[in-house]
Write a structure and sequence with these properties.
Blueprint (H helix, E strand, L loop, with lengths): L8 E4 L6 H19 L6 E6 L5 H14 L3 E7 L2 H7 L4 E5 L8 E8 L2 E2 L2 H12 L14 E2 L3 H12 L10 E5 L9 H7 L3 E5 L20 H11 L23 E5 L6 E4 L8 H15 L4 E6 L5 H9 L3 E4 L5 H15 L3 E8 L2 E3 L9 H15 L1 H5 L7 E7 L5 H15 L4 E3 L4 E4 L5 E6 L5 E7 L3 H22 L1
Parallel strand pairs: 2-3, 2-4, 3-7, 8-9, 8-10, 12-13, 12-14
Antiparallel strand pairs: 1-5, 4-5, 5-6, 10-11, 14-15, 16-20, 17-18, 18-19, 19-20
Helix pairs in contact: 1-2, 1-4, 5-6, 5-11, 8-9, 13-14
């Protein structure tokens, strides 16, 4: 598809995600909604945006497309993406956000009944946009209605998180909102759960003046330094003693949280100011959800580039891992459920995640960094972050890009489907999403073509990661050279 990528439509607000495109997409979505309604009364579409400067103009165009397409528009204003997804349960939703992209960009994400549109639904919208459809008859146009949905979402997150861990009871947490839409969400939920919260970049500002919107070890340097300085010399940072007093410096923090612009991503910073590896966070949540499930066959859905540490902890808890292509967690959940319905077994998806992004299946079918913050905080209150991490094997990890022209990628991957297993005969092979090799010592490597750049990506995790990545890269380079010679 030309419009939709792995996370909706995204790009420059001046040249790609323009008001003109928003109008066309809105009208196309309206046509899809009306077709699905099968002639009943106009269906509802909740429309929200993040805090970007270009958001109001694009929202106005989107609203015009939806309303002139003959559907009822519920204008929800500025929201975190997970709050819009929550509001789309039982109806449709449109979120205008470029997530962690720079302030020059904007984007469009589509939801139905709390889940992102799958590829077929996105393709149908794209086809209608290309067809330049007409508006609905004039007397079927609608007038938007203002709705307030944030409070109900925050209440639901709090109630869901209370099923796990322990009361926060004054636990000190630092939250870097990055001037994004977590500002009215995560600090509020954590305080209502009993935490003492200090925020950085805690106002919504579409220019993202505090830091880059993508939370990385580099962009979170102020949060990391803030926590490290506050915890210097503190014996038990952020945790109350038996008599309710703090151990050591009262300014210490148990951990920190960093979000992106629309609050679907989350990064955890430990009490030393170090970023906890995203796969470790994924593994500890996956293990907890698996252990608490009463299903005979609990399943965690993740992506091919996710660490083997997830498989280890899920197996230890009595479950299994199923992998799906990047950006398609909702499709993976649907596939597991369809298989379970066909076989009649007690198989349930208990958690779905790719690095930085988590779907709490018991809460909803959307990626939700605010829910992750609340659940993790209560798990930390119960046992401490160090204890949660202790059983997780954190092996060295590397990612390398090998030059490969786009036109050569199919031939290269075809060769690698046999060349990599031949080069690593002791590995278990999975070719569903690239070529993934898993070794008896839990090391692994994944080779897959980039979907956006002229590279083949090589991922590896191993105690001997440099040797493993070098061996895998050598096989990839041979395949690229061979296909280039064939051409």
């Amino acid at each position: 598809m030309d419009l939709f990528g792995t996370a909706g439509i995204r790009g420059s607000a001046e040249t790609r995600v323009t008001p003109e495109l928003a109008l066309a997409v809105g009208r196309a979505v309206a046509a899809e909604v009306r077709a699905a309604a099968d002639g009943d009364a106009p269906s509802e579409v909740v429309l929200a945006r993040d805090g970007r400067v270009t958001g109001p103009a694009i929202a106005a165009a989107m609203e015009s497309g939806l309303a002139s397409g003959g559907v009822r528009v519920l204008r929800a204003g500025r929201l975190p993406t997970p709050a819009l997804a929550h509001a789309s349960r039982g109806r449709y939703g449109v979120m205008l956000t470029a997530s962690h992209n720079p302030p020059t960009d904007n984007g469009i994400k589509l939801f139905r009944d709390g889940s992102e549109f799958d590829r077929d639904a996105e393709r149908a919208v794209e086809d209608r946009v290309a067809g330049e459809g007409s508006p609905a008859p004039w007397d079927e146009w609608t007038e938007a209605e203002r709705v307030d949905t944030l409070g109900g979402y925050l209440d639901a997150v709090r109630a869901y998180a209370e099923r796990f861990g322990d009361d926060l009871d004054g636990l000190r947490i630092a939250v870097d909102c990055g001037n994004g839409m977590s500002a009215p969400a995560t600090p509020t939920v954590l305080r209502e759960l009993g935490a003492e919260v200090v925020t950085l970049n805690g106002n919504v500002d579409g220019y993202f003046p505090g830091r880059g919107s993508k939370p990385t070890p580099e962009t979170l340097r102020d949060l990391r330094a803030f926590i490290a300085d506050a915890n210097e010399g503190v014996a038990a940072p952020g945790r109350p003693t038996a008599d309710g007093e703090r151990a050591g410096d009262a300014e210490g923090f148990a951990f920190g949280i960093g979000h992106d612009g629309d609050s679907d991503r989350i990064v955890i910073v430990d009490a030393d100011g170090d970023v906890v590896h995203e796969d470790t966070v994924l593994a500890l949540l996956a293990e907890r959800y698996t252990r608490e499930s009463d299903a005979a066959d609990p399943v965690v859905v993740t992506t091919p580039n996710a660490s083997g540490r997830i498989d280890e902890r899920v197996r230890e808890a009595g479950g299994r891992v199923d992998r799906v292509r990047l950006g398609a967690l909702h499709e993976g959940i649907a596939a597991v459920r369809a298989d379970a319905a066909e076989t009649g077994g007690d198989t349930r998806v208990v958690f779905a995640a790719e690095p930085w992004k988590h779907i709490h299946v018991g809460f909803g079918g959307w990626i939700d960094g605010v829910a992750s913050a609340a659940v993790i905080a209560r798990l930390v209150a119960e046992s401490g972050l160090d204890a949660l991490r202790e059983p997780i094997a954190e092996r060295p990890y590397r990612k390398v890009s090998v030059d490969c022209p786009d036109e050569a990628k199919p031939g290269v991957m075809e060769r690698l489907a046999t060349a990599l297993p031949d080069a690593f005969p002791d590995a278990t092979v999975d070719t569903d999403h690239g070529v993934r090799l898993e070794f008896p010592d839990a090391s692994w490597t994944l080779v897959r073509p980039s979907g956006t750049e002229p590279y083949v990506r090589v991922y590896a995790e191993s105690d001997e990661v440099d040797a493993l990545i070098a061996d895998a890269v050598a096989v990839v380079e041979d395949a690229v050279a061979a296909v280039g010679g064939d051409e």
